[in-house]
């Protein structure tokens, strides 16, 4: 259900009410009490959630088609009959205040909040969607009801249903469900018009962070303006992907930033063209000039035809990928009808994209990319490097525009088989192929056993380092070549490395399959580990290690793993440490790669719009020169159980505390894995015990969940909560109480069945995308579970009994052998 009421429709005194309302809509009706909606969705194996944006609020439900009536009744009941209980409102406001604190602690969120507050002086887009602490606290049930009566009326809502059903029957049911829901006049919309910006705006802020955020914004028109397709193409050319201008010049060539991108934000009302970078504080001044030069060069130098065609293909392919899932299709249709002006938006937009010329790009760039329309903001670390001042940004921006103006202007002139084919190639590679011709999409995975588990002593992070280097050049392609080739076929290609494996994953349109195979086989067979790319990547990893200190959830996870796993490799960070990465040489990467990238250790999966025999021959031919070689898997001892409880606290000058409490869990082959997975799901999710007890009832947190990580060796079973520092003791006590309950009494039949249905439904929904299925079968095969183990998931989860839950709870929840990690503000600080 899409509602044309986002944060832009609020007044200053009620900032955040649309978001508060979104939280409250699922908090009970006359028919369904608090938690009842989430419970019923879980019972049907579905998924329900909502989000608020600047222009709209969206409530979305994914459920098996056989439960269509249930899903429709839940949505119609919530929309028409929500209780908006004042006590629940107080609790939910506490939850939202925790969410607000979390955003303040997240540097990129805060950076964007300050950018919008600076770029917009009058328009409602200047306010954060979540609102402010004082406005959220001030909202009453009366405010909520008034907001509901004003905006939640049929003539301001769009109901989208996509899936396996008969349209005529569904329409009748929908009409009946909303028969008593009457239209009414909408209030006058008084969103302030943003005055034309006349000069550069800049703002500098500082905080206790490691990495700086540099952001630029230019005012642009609203979504339906004729210039928007051109600006979208510019955003791709300028800052999307590794072959984009900003990435290549500012990151790859000049090494001034850790990451950089651009984006054309085109809401219902006039939006912003954004360019942003994460970088070190000492590089801010040096980066401003070349970034703005790249933007302003679009006014004087035409883009190449290759750049233009690649951008068009990427934008067009986005619509194809959206159609892969019912959620993607529903989201697209809802957006078209609610914001874009009608269901024919896609057809019109693609036609406009195809007609864009290089001359159009210059013309549009000249219109919007100038200093009088520029806003620049910086969020920088307090420590280290020289501070920067607003007047310095202004001077650098003026210099950039002047330099570009001095450049002479250029003259413009199916069916869906269920079977997976498995073949062992002569050299030992395991090949898995699944045909699916419903969409012209192909997903490819190449998985090797490796990862943190297999890293040599004192070489922490070498697996991740090695995988990062795979896309940075081969014998015949450099890093730029690879990036350009991927983007020229509107695809995606990434290397990955985790605790137990590393490899390559890719997604592309099926008409570019040969290009994809050629590129992937070259990357696997002929990585160059180029010396200059090696040194560049080493610096990037060292910066990432330093800057991940800003990510408090990552920090608490690392601390927890160190406590729980002690000397086992799982105790290490996937990225490694400053000391280990600094010591690694290029030769170490080559040795590691040669040891693990052997045919017997490779599972290669292809899922999508392919012909099995054709693909099998292509892959065998591509890897024919990879000689058969025996893979000897190093023996690693299981993690040792803790002899006693282990706890540790790290202090940070932040608003929130982050807590992780847990135990050793199960490995991939442990028969307890399914029962423990069900137990974890009983605790997690919106209908889970932790959420209901600690968030809904006690308002201790915005974010609380259980964690069940299953690995080659014993994994993790834990509970996480983010809370205010003054609530730490209550939060830990609350988690322990919920865990203890599971060891003392059996789970009720209703709760157990609901949880199992939810798990099975979510698992099936998650496998809609070809990329998800390609990953699932690749990892299952490589970890020795069998490529078809996903087909047995529903059966194995369904077989779990309440007795099984009680047994695994007693076995794994052991309060004499747990790890407790806490990240919190200093006691007595202003945040305590």
From TrEMBL:
Gene3D superfamilies xref list: Metalloenzyme, LuxS/M16 peptidase-like (3.30.830.10)
Domain Peptidase M16 C-terminal: 138-314, 583-758
Coiled-coil annotated residue ranges, if any: none
Domain Peptidase M16 N-terminal: start-end pairs: 1-131, 432-577
GO MF annotation: an example: metal ion binding
InterPro entries per UniProt: Metalloenz_LuxS/M16 (IPR011249), MPP/UQCRC_Complex (IPR050361), Pept_M16_N (IPR011765), Peptidase_M16_C (IPR007863)
Record Pfam families: Peptidase_M16 (PF00675), Peptidase_M16_C (PF05193)
Alphabetized PANTHER family for the sequence: METALLOPROTEASE, MITOCHONDRIAL-PROCESSING PEPTIDASE SUBUNIT ALPHA
Family the UniProt entry places it in: Belongs to the peptidase M16 family.
UniProt name for this protein: Peptidase M16
């Amino acid at each position: 259900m899409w509602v044309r009421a986002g944060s832009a429709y609020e007044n200053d005194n009620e900032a955040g009410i649309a978001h508060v309302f979104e939280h409250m809509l699922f908090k009970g009706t006359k028919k369904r009490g608090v938690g009842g909606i989430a419970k019923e969705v879980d019972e049907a194996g579905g998924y329900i959630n909502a989000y608020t944006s600047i222009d709209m609020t969206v409530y979305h439900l994914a459920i098996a088609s056989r439960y269509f009536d249930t899903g429709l009744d839940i949505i119609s009941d919530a929309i028409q009959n929500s209780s908006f209980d004042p006590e629940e409102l107080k609790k939910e406001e506490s939850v939202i205040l925790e969410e607000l604190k979390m955003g303040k602690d997240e540097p990129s969120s805060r950076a964007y909040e300050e950018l919008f507050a600076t770029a917009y002086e009058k328009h409602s887009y200047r306010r954060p969607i979540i609102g402010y602490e004082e406005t959220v606290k001030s909202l009453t049930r009366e405010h909520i009801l008034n907001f509901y009566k004003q905006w939640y009326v049929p003539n301001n809502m769009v109901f989208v249903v996509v899936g396996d059903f008969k349209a005529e029957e569904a329409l009748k049911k929908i009409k009946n469900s909303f028969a008593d829901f009457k239209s009414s006049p909408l209030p006058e919309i008084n969103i302030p018009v943003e005055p034309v910006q006349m000069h550069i705006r800049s703002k500098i802020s500082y905080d206790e962070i490691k990495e700086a955020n540099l952001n630029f914004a230019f005012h642009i028109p609203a979504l339906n303006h004729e210039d928007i397709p051109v600006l979208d193409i510019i955003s791709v050319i300028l800052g999307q992907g590794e072959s984009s201008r900003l990435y290549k010049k500012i990151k790859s060539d000049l090494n001034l930033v850790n990451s950089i991108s651009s984006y054309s934000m085109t809401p219902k009302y006039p939006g912003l063209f954004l360019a942003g970078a994460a970088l070190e504080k000492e590089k801010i001044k040096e980066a401003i000039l070349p970034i703005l030069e790249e933007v302003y060069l679009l006014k004087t130098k035409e883009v190449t035809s290759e750049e233009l065609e690649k951008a068009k293909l990427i934008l067009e392919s986005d619509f194809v990928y959206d159609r892969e899932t019912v959620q993607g299709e529903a989201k697209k249709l809802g957006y078209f009808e609610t914001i874009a002006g009608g269901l024919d938006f896609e057809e019109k937009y693609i036609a406009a994209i195809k007609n864009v010329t290089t001359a159009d790009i210059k013309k549009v760039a000249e219109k919007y990319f100038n200093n009088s329309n520029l806003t620049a903001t910086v969020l920088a670390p307090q420590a280290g490097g020289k501070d920067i001042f607003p007047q310095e940004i202004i001077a650098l921006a003026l210099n950039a525009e002047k330099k570009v103006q001095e450049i002479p202007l250029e003259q413009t002139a199916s069916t869906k088989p269920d079977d997976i084919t498995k073949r062992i190639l002569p050299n030992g590679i395991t090949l898995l192929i699944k045909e699916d011709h419903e969409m012209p999409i192909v997903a490819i995975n190449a998985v090797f056993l490796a990862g943190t588990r297999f890293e040599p002593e004192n070489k922490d992070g070498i697996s991740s380092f090695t995988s990062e280097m795979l896309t940075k050049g081969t014998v015949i392609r450099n890093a730029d070549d690879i990036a350009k080739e991927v983007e020229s076929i509107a695809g995606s290609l990434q290397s990955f490395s985790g605790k137990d494996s590393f490899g390559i994953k890719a997604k592309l349109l099926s008409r570019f399959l040969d290009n994809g195979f050629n590129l992937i086989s070259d990357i696997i067979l002929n990585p160059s580990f180029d010396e200059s790319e090696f040194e560049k990547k080493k610096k990037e990893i060292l910066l990432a290690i330093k800057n991940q200190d800003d990510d408090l959830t990552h920090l608490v996870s690392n601390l927890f793993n160190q406590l729980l796993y002690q000397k086992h490799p799982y105790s290490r960070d996937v990225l490694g440490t400053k000391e280990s990465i600094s010591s690694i040489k290029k030769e170490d990467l080559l040795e590691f790669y040669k040891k693990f990238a052997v045919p017997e250790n490779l599972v290669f999966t292809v899922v999508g719009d392919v012909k099995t025999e054709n693909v099998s021959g292509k892959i065998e031919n591509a890897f024919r020169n990879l000689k058969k070689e025996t893979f000897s898997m190093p023996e690693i001892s299981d993690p040792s159980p803790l002899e006693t409880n282990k706890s540790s606290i790290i202090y940070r000058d932040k608003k929130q505390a982050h807590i992780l409490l847990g135990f050793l869990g199960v490995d991939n082959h442990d028969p307890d894995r399914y029962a423990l997975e069900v137990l974890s799901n009983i605790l997690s999710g919106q209908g889970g015990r932790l959420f209901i007890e600690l968030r809904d009832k006690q308002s201790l947190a915005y974010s609380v969940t259980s964690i069940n990580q299953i690995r080659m060796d014993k994994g993790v079973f834990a509970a996480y909560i983010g809370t205010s520092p003054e609530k730490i003791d209550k939060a830990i006590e609350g988690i322990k109480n919920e865990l203890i309950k599971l060891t003392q009494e059996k789970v009720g039949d209703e709760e157990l069945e609901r949880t199992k249905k939810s798990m099975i439904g979510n698992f099936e929904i998650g496998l809609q995308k070809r990329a998800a299925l390609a990953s699932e079968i690749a990892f299952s095969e490589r970890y020795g579970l069998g490529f078809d183990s996903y087909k047995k998931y529903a059966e194995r989860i369904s077989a779990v009994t309440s007795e099984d839950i009680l047994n695994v709870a007693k076995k794994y929840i052991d309060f004499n052998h747990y790890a407790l990690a806490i990240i919190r503000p200093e006691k007595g600080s202003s945040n305590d």
